[in-house]
Design brief:
single chain, 156 residues, alpha+beta, Arc Repressor Mutant, subunit A, Gyrase A, domain 2, 2 domains, four-stranded antiparallel sheet, 6 strands, arginine biosynthesis, repressor, DNA-binding transcription factor activity, Arginine repressor
């Protein structure tokens, strides 16, 4: 699951810094404790579908693609399935437990899947809190999560 932690850190780094090259990204990851090779960085960029965009300083930097096509959805469903360990609800809240370091990745996955009725999410290291618009919609979201786990147990 180190890959999900690393990829989550990449998303965080490109959101908060202007990263123009794979070398700069690799150096920043190493400073954060991730030992990476150029091939790993290249693979992560491809899997995350990062693109280069013109920054406010006139240089090109890495950014998340705005496209929301099926491969992205499938990838986020897979991330969610592989990182969550349990989930439970209380009123209009759903608390999701994840593997250590995977809370933000699971949160990004849930946000990108585009679940109905989710007002927002807050991610910690190994926990994700979802706020649902109305208590009566929680059961629908929990059923979606159960379906994802059933797919995992069948090896899909």
């Amino acid at each position: 699951m180190m890959r999900y932690s690393r990829q989550n850190k990449i998303l965080e780094l490109i959101a908060n810094n202007e990263i123009e090259t794979q070398d700069k990204l690799a150096a920043m990851l190493k400073a954060e404790g991730f030992e990476v090779t150029q091939a790993t960085i290249s693979r992560d960029i491809k899997e995350l579908q990062l693109i280069k965009v013109l920054s406010s300083t006139g240089k090109y930097k890495y950014a998340v693609s705005a496209r929301q096509d099926a491969p992205i959805s499938d990838r986020f469903v897979k991330i969610f399935r592989e990182t969550i360990t349990s989930f439970a609800s209380a009123q209009n809240l759903i608390v999701i437990k994840t593997l250590s370091g995977c809370g933000p990745a699971a949160g990004e996955a849930v946000d990108c899947i585009g679940l109905p009725h989710v007002v927002g999410s807050v991610a910690g290291d190994n926990t994700l809190l979802l706020i649902i618009d109305k208590e009566e919609h929680v059961e629908e979201i929990m059923a979606i999560f159960n379906d994802m786990l059933i797919m995992r147990s069948k090896g899909q």
